Amino acid sequence: MKSMEKNTNGQRFYRPGHGVFGHLPDPPKKVFESQGGLTPETAQRVHLINAFRRYGYLEAQLDPLGLKQVEK
User: Superkingdom, according to UniProt (predicted)?
Assistant: First the structure.
């Protein structure tokens, strides 16, 4: 009968140590590093796109069902 602490490969399901009940959090994984910096022009483009996403619906004149009465 196999031990409950080990899987079929012989690896443990937990990392022994001095953490809570012998469990330690996994070490941080490698973080994605950007290849290039954010240029001022690109930053302005991103800011403009986010502004349209956030506030564009306020200026949109949409009435797909034609429910709004048009004043003449």
Answer: Eukaryota
Amino acid symbol at 25: P
Contacts of 17 (CB under 8 A, 6+ apart): 23, 24
The whole-angstrom separation of Cα 49 and Cα 6 is: 51
CA dist 53 and 47 (Å) reads: 10
pLDDT along the chain (72 residues), means of 10: 54 58 71 76 94 87 82 73
Q: What amino acid occupies position 39?
A: T
- Phi, psi dihedrals of residue 57, rounded to the nearest 5°: -65, -20
